[in-house]
Amino acid sequence: MTLRIDGTDHELTVDTRTTLLDALRERAGNTSPKKGCDHGQCGSCTVLLDGRRHLTCLALAVAYDGAEIVTAAGLAGPADEGDLHPVQQAFITHDGFQCGYCTPGQVCSAVGMLEEAGRGAPSHVTADLEADVDLTDEEIRERMSGNLCRCGAYAGILGAIRESAGR
Amino acid sequence: MRPLTYAAPATAAEAVSAVRGDPQARFLGGGTNLVDHLKLGVSTPGRLVDISRLPLDTVEQTEAGVRIGTNVRNSDLAAYPLLRSGWPGVSRALLAGASGQIRNQATTGGNLLQRTRCVYFQDVTTPCNKREPGSGCSALEGYGRYNAVLGASEACVATHPSDLAVALTALDAVVVVLGSDGERRVPMVELHTLPGHHPEIETTLSHGELITAVELPATPLARRSTYVKTRDRASYAFALVSVAAAVTLDDDGAVADIALAWGGVAHKPWRAARAEATLRGRRPDEPAIAAAVEKELREAAFGPHTAYKRPLLRGATTEALSRLLGGLDGKSDGTSEQEGAR
C-alpha cells in the first residue's frame, strides 16, 4: 500500500491488523503522532488525513491505501527554512506546549478545527445551527474536546487558537 | 488482535455476498467502534469486508424528504444545510456525539450499528451475556450507572449508545437494507431489539445484510426538533440519558403533534409513545410533561444506581420541549434562541 506522508510517498507492506498510527510510527518512521490511550479517547494520534483531522489509532492502515497524511511535523515548512505553521507558532507564543506529548495531536486538531469552523460547520454549543460560526472560547473548547492534556496546557492552547482564529 | 483477512469489494452487492457467505466476516465502515473492539478482543472476526469506499456517501433531497448514504460522515451530515434547517434535531444529535475527529471518521450506518459501551461488555475478563452468551451479566450486581431502566432482561441491562439513532427514531426514519435477496426497508423503531434471552442479537438484520441508506421523511414536526443530551462532562462522553423531541402547537397552545425518543435508557433507542399520547391535545406545561414522563416510565425498573435517571429524564424532556417552545408556561429559561423559537 501507499501512504503519502508529509509530502513523501511511502510504499508499505503491512499486516492487516496494523493501525494507521503504528504504520506511521513503526513503519514509516514518523513519530509526530503520539500513542496515548490507543483507544480513540485522547486525541494525541490526530493527523490531517485527506485534509481532515482524524484519529490514527482507530484506523486500520489497509483501509487507507492512497491516503494523503499531514502530521504536525509536516505542517511546518522545510527545516532549513525554519518556518513554522502559524498555529505552531501561536502554540509557542502562548505557552501551549508544556510537556509536549499531546502537542502534535493538539496542533493537527486545531488546524483541522479552524478549517471546519471556517467553512461554517456548527458544533454542539452553536446556538443557531444556521448562523455563521463565531469562534468564542466556548466554541474552541467544545471543538477541541477530543484532545486531552494531562499537564494542563489548555489555557495556553485556548490562547493560541484564539490568536490563530484572528480573535 | 487475531489474524484476519481484508477485502474491499467494488460494489455493495459484492460486499453483501462476501459477508453473507462467511459467518466469520464483518463489514468495516469508519471503524471507530470495530477497530477498538478488535484491539480489546471483544470482536474476533476472521475477515473484514471494507465498505467505507463504496460510493454510498451522498445526501440527496427526495420527494418525501432526504436520503442519506450509509457512508456519509457524521460531521458532514451534521453540517449539511438541508439537515440543519429541516431536521435540526438530527444535526444536534450528531454534534452531541463523540469528538470532532471521530465525527470525521464515523459513518451514518456504522453509527446505528455501534455497540454498547457497557464496561463489562468491553472487558473480556468479565462475564457478559452479550459478548459470550450464557456467561452471565456482570452489570446486574456491578457498576450500574449506565444500565437500562426500560425493556431490560435478567440476561442484559446494556443501553444502546448512539445519539443519532435516538433522533432518527423520534423522526420516523427508515433504514434501507441490502441483502442477498435485494433491498428492504426497516423503520428505525424496528431496527434494534430488546435483549430478552438473547442480548447477543441486537438488530433485526441478518448476517450479511448491509445498511445502504437512511431515509428521513420531511415533516413540519421535523423542522421543530431538537436533542438534549446529559452526560458526566460538558463534551465527548456517552449519554446518561438523552431526549430527541419535536413538537407543534395548535392555535389554542395545545400540543398538535409531538415526537419523543429517549437514549441511555434501553437496549434500543426508546420511542416514548405513551408520553407522546399523554401530551397530545394538552398544554405542554411542566406538570403535564412530568405526568407524561411518569406514564412512559410505568413499567420501568430503577435500581439504586439508576434511580437518578427518573428525575433526569423528567428534566431533560422538559428542557427539550422548553427549548422548542421558547419556554414553557410559568417557566422561562432563557433558551429561546433555539430552533423552535424562530
From TrEMBL, chain B:
InterPro entries: CO_DH_flav_C, CO_DH_flav_C_dom_sf, Diverse_Substr_Oxidored, FAD-bd_PCMH, FAD-bd_PCMH-like_sf, FAD-bd_PCMH_sub1, FAD-bd_PCMH_sub2, Mopterin_DH_FAD-bd. SUPFAM superfamilies: CO dehydrogenase flavoprotein C-terminal domain-like (SSF55447), FAD-binding/transporter-associated domain-like (SSF56176). Residues 1-221 form the FAD-binding PCMH-type domain. PROSITE patterns: FAD_PCMH (PS51387). It holds the Pfam family FAD_binding_5. GO terms for molecular function: FAD binding; oxidoreductase activity. Keywords: Oxidoreductase. This is Xanthine dehydrogenase YagS FAD-binding subunit. The lineage of its organism: Bacteria, Bacillati, Actinomycetota, Actinomycetes, Micrococcales.
